[in-house]
Design brief:
It is built from 8 helices and 5 strands. By secondary structure, the protein is α/β, with parallel strands linked by helices. The longest helix is centred in the C-terminal third of the chain and has 18 residues, at 124-141.
Length: 169
């Protein structure tokens, strides 16, 4: 029996556009879409609240469970920016088609909302540090990279779909 797996998994730093892009890719492919941050928030409450009341370790446990569930689906999946911290998640991603969604610090700055992103309370400086600390993990799991700094999301989504189709051919 064939393993059920997502058609594509999107990883990358916070505010790179993974959720909006994932929804567009899923629509173009006629597939379902799962966002692990949304899964956690729907079950346990807002992520900033979880960080404040239970701490990052508790959030990461909930996130890991959402990742396991999402990776057993057959649609398009967007992982939270920090999901790649977990070595088990990185190991699981090696068997999947993973697209790294990147963005420059100049392009991301207007998107940063520290109220929604507890690890980015220090603004752009925090984001740059966070991305730097995770870069090797993103590179470890990604099969291709798509940048959202200057290209419209609809174009990036189409590029991802073309990549998926070329991989399946």
């Amino acid at each position: 029996m064939a393993r059920v797996a997502p058609v594509v998994v999107l990883v990358g730093p916070p505010a790179a556009g993974k959720t909006r892009l994932g929804k567009r890719v899923a629509k173009l492919l006629g597939l379902g879409f799962l966002d692990t941050d949304a899964m956690v928030a729907n079950r346990y409450g807002s992520i900033p609240e979880l960080f404040a009341t239970e701490g990052e370790a508790s959030f990461r446990q909930k996130e890991r469970a959402a990742v396991v569930e999402a990776l057993s689906s057959s649609g398009v999946v967007a992982l939270g920016g920090g999901a790649v911290i977990d070595p088990d998640t990185r190991a699981d991603l090696l068997d999947n088609r993973v697209a790294l969604i990147s963005i420059s610090s100049e392009a991301v700055e207007p998107r940063l909302n520290s109220a929604k992103r507890p690890l980015l309370a220090g603004g752009l400086e925090s984001w740059v540090s966070l991305v730097s600390s995770r870069a090797a993990w993103y590179d470890e799991v990604a099969k291709a990279t798509f940048d959202t700094s200057a290209t419209p999301l609809d174009t990036v989504a189409q590029n991802i779909v073309e990549w998926i189709k070329s991989e399946e051919a």
